[in-house]
Write a structure and sequence with these properties.
about 425 residues; alpha/beta; nine-stranded mixed β-sheet; five-stranded parallel β-sheet; 10 helices; about 30% strand; binds adenosine-5'-triphosphate; binds ligand LQESDW3C
Length: about 425
């Protein structure tokens, strides 16, 4: 049994061992020394019954545990409970518990986890008794992305992001005016490198063209449904384009990441700007036509739009070309004059010009984590310690890329037989 001090009821009592206890390494700096003197800085699962100030019942849920980040306490768990979204937040300054808007796909229910605060803006959660490819999750509580979403929603927001082990490449955002050839170039890439790229299937309220397939070219939907889903935080970005709503759902990007492929997004300039502001660290490529006349010729030759819609798209193309080429937003600007030459240049940018083996993929061996673990941090690396066996696994976050929404890539994880001296352990 462990003792705990309940700040809300001012009582000291005992915490059963099954309730996960972890005092995060960065906590001392984030809450200050006072909190660490005499009072347990972490509220444990069964502390949570203490406050019902905003009317909901705070009976602790099974396998729920909590962690302090600055002024707030995040209670995480209870995923089995259908009434829970898995996260509750206690704000010390208001004395209230709130259920936040939860973005990203939350992990499947798990029985036990250990947590650690990273950089005071995200919580690392390691699922007990899990596999290495599904054990590391991040709950972003104050990253730039989450701060923006808090402003947008005007309420408490958190965002889940799954840790992906290995060298996943940065997603690719391709923008450019309608008819410039984005789809044509993307199809060439997907055909030549089928195991390497996955297309982010957008949602749109426009009507399908002949031969367009729901779920493959787009998720065709209607405005009221899509607006509701936007409100619910399901979209990484969305924009009104040529009179219709288009958007990239967080799920669309996650599906590609989970297949181990590099995600390609075909979105307009407004969408690219939103993605740039998100924590999806993508490469941004803008495709230009050789001339406005050629753009018009291609749009007409495609034969998919009415004259009225062609005029609308051409009109919007002027602003898009101006914004796309005015600098800052895009990493690369390509002119799609000769299709083959443009495709070669695109491959070059993506490192597919033969300078490396494009079919080569980093394979990461999957292994099982111990049943019961604790976490510590040594030399910037997270050590996952087995509570019952002399087994340690290193989680190296130094090459970590991106973050919410969706996936945090570039994690390295390997079992180690090295003896780790607990005296140097920042968090024994
Ligand atoms: N370099 C090129 N030279 C000539 N025609 C081209 C070239 N690239 C693409 N096209 C043609 O231009 C038309 C428009 O291309 P595509 O549909 O790929 O454009 P897009 O940028 O994806 O348009 P949208 O944004 O409307 O989806 C197609 O008929 C395609 O075959
Ligand atoms: N902001 C977003 N723009 C998108 C998305 N999906 C497609 N698009 C852009 O819309 C126009 C028109 O496409 P079309 O298929 O109707 O010709 C084009 O510029 C696309 O890049 C999206 O999810 N978000």
């Amino acid at each position: 049994m462990l003792w705990r001090f309940d700040k809300l009821t001012s009582k000291i009592d005992f915490v059963p061992n099954h309730i996960n206890q972890f005092i995060p390494s960065d906590l001392e700096s984030s809450v200050g020394k006072l909190d660490l003197m005499g009072e347990a800085p972490v509220f444990f699962g069964d502390d949570l019954h203490a406050s019902v100030s905003n009317g909901f019942h705070l009976k602790p849920k099974e396998f729920e545990s909590a962690i302090v980040v600055g002024n707030k306490t995040y209670a995480i768990g209870g995923f089995d409970d259908p009434t829970s979204n898995g996260v509750r937040v206690f704000d010390k300054s208001t004395g209230e518990w709130v259920v936040p808007i939860v973005l990203g796909t939350k992990p499947n229910a798990f029985k036990g986890h250990s947590m650690m605060l990273l950089d005071s803006d995200r919580i690392l959660i390691i699922k007990h008794n899990s596999k290495s490819n599904d054990c590391a999750w991040f709950l972003e509580v104050d990253t730039r992305y989450v701060q923006e979403q808090k402003k947008k929603f005007g309420s408490e927001v958190v965002s889940w992001s799954k840790g992906v082990i290995g060298d996943a490449e940065r997603p690719i955002v391709i923008s450019g005016p309608s008819g410039v050839g984005k789809g044509t170039l993307i199809n060439m890439l997907m055909k030549d490198f089928p195991t390497m790229f996955g297309f982010s299937v957008s949602h749109t309220t426009r009507t399908p063209r002949e031969k367009e397939e729901n779920g493959f070219h787009y998720h065709f939907t209607n405005r009221s449904v899509m607006e509701e889903e936007i409100k619910a935080g399901k979209f990484l970005e969305f924009a009104s384009v040529h009179g219709n709503l288009y958007g990239t759902s967080i799920e669309a990007v996650e599906v590609v990441a989970d297949s181990g492929k590099r995600c390609i997004l075909d979105i307009d300039v407004q969408g690219a700007r939103s993605v740039r502001a998100s924590s999806l660290e993508a490469i941004f490529i803008f495709i230009c036509p050789p001339s406005f006349e050629e753009l018009e010729k291609r749009l007409r030759a495609r034969g998919t739009e009415t004259e009225e819609l062609i005029q609308k798209r051409l009109n919007n193309a002027k602003a898009e070309l101006e914004q796309g080429t005015s600098g800052g937003l895009f990493d690369h600007i390509l002119v799609n004059d000769d299709l083959e030459a443009c495709y070669e240049r695109l491959k070059e940018i993506l490192g597919l010009d033969g300078s490396r083996d494009a079919t080569l993929k980093t394979t990461t061996e999957v292994f099982a984590l111990p049943m019961e673990i604790s976490l510590s941090k040594i030399d910037g690396k997270i050590i996952i310690n087995s509570k019952n066996a002399d087994q340690k696994i290193v989680l190296d976050l130094t090459s970590m890329k991106g973050g919410g929404p969706g996936r945090t890539r570039g994690l390295r994880m390997y079992p180690t037989s090295l003896h780790i001296d607990d005296d140097n352990d920042e968090n024994a």
